[in-house]
Amino acid sequence: MCRCKTKRKVKILRLKIDKTMSHTGYSYYKDVAIDSCISDIVQALENNNIYMLGSCCGHNEDVGSIALQDGRILIITDSKINWIEITN
Ligand SMILES: [Zn+2]
Predict the structure, then answer these.
(1) What are the boundaries of each domain within the chain?
(2) For residues 24, 52, 37 and 60, what is the CA-based torsion angle, rounded to 10 degrees?
(3) Which of 28, 39, 53, 86 is the most buried (most CB within 10 A)?
């Protein structure tokens, strides 16, 4: 769970919208507001051409998640203990 206090703190990242997710059939770049507390993770995925559908840090209410284009979901939690609770 993220310990951020606000839903408004975002970082604008320029992310590639892959052609498979584009209504035009062509890839393009779009400025997207990303929760600042997970923007480094999102940027790292982007830098490695791992395309995403959406993300949320959880805003101190739930675990964070990043939805990947291929259907997988990355779960973001703040500790190994929380990770064990989630996965068991
Ligand atoms: Zn957060």
Answers:
(1) 10-87
(2) 110
(3) 39
